[in-house]
Amino acid sequence: MKFVDEAVITIKSGDGGPGCTSFRRERFIERGGPDGGDGGDGGHVILRVDPGKRTLYDYRRQKTHRAQNGAPGMGRQKHGKNGTHYYLDLPRGTLVLDADTGEPITDLTLVDSEYIIALGGKGGRGNKRFATSTNRAPRYSQPGLPGTELKLKLELKLVADVGIVGLPNAGKSTLISAMSAARPKIGDYPFTTLTPTLGMVTPPFGEPFAVADIPGLIEGAHQGTGLGIKFLKHIERTGILIHLIDAGTIDPQSPLDGFTMINRELALYSRDLADKSQIIVINKIDLTGTGHRVDSFCNAVPDLEIHTISAATGQGVGRLIKLLASRLQKEQE
């Protein structure tokens, strides 16, 4: 299924059913009183999180969503049936905005989140309700109130404990495959990953955690260059960042160029991103001739903790998983 992280839809809660104007008419009862029942209430439109959903694909195809109208009231004081509520099942991490104003309405980050986005219209009262001592035969009833119509913009931001960032072709997809059961497309060219991938990692201790493979970032990403803002937003909800560096691309003369550029893009997009905890990981150490490149990077940042791995062979991946589990456990204490 195609990954879709944005959609614009129109929702409409149900209209209230009209009240009934009716009088009791039975044999041997000459002048029965009013007996019109109330109309039923319209159904609500309710947003809820579906743990099985990963994209907004369905909402790209179906643009309009309506709850059921309330049924009209009937004679003999029979009330109309309430309209059925309409549930919009959304992936966890969906931000819901007013499409016309851009104002956020709700953010579905919890697994059991539910939110009534549009209340159904109230059903109208039947003429029985208007009978008084001075007006014993009212010949009017209320119409039902209309439901609410809204145009919504849905934005999905992945919810993950760990996000993997880095330049294109740094080996992010290979790493997430080595850490979890996720199987993203892997190739030896930039921008193989065109959509974020989420994988679940089961460490030897502690709770399982989610890792997001974020497509490669390039200079100007904060302004939308390359894959840009479309994927930077997915990093906002991660707890820890793995800053993945391709050992083969480190220039011994200026080893920090790529590392500095990625951090600058994160900071320009959001100060919160720049302040997130980072684990620096140099990948592809199995390749011939990378030793001196790795040394040049480590020597340029002697105060930083650097971890070396080969995602392709699995070297150091188990150690990295344990480190992540330990960090996440500390953050939750």
Mind explaining what this structure looks like?
The strands form three sheets. A six-stranded mixed β-sheet has the order 10-11-9-12-13-14. With 333 residues, it is of the alpha/beta class. The two termini are 37 Å apart. The chain contains seven helices and 14 strands. The longest helix is centred in the last third of the chain and has 16 residues, at 317-332. It folds into two domains: 1-156, GTP1/OBG domain (Spo0b-associated Gtp-binding Protein, Chain: A), CATH 2.70.210.12; 162-332, 3-Layer(aba) Sandwich (Rossmann fold), CATH 3.40.50.300.
Helix and strand layout, with pairings?
Blueprint: E1 6-12, E2 45-49, H1 57-61, E3 64-66, E4 86-90, E5 94-98, E6 104-108, E7 114-118, E8 149-156, E9 162-166, H2 172-179, E10 197-201, E11 209-213, H3 228-235, E12 240-246, H4 257-269, H5 271-274, E13 277-283, H6 291-300, E14 306-308, H7 317-332
Parallel strand pairs: 1-3, 2-4, 9-11, 9-12, 12-13, 13-14
Antiparallel strand pairs: 1-8, 2-7, 5-6, 5-8, 10-11
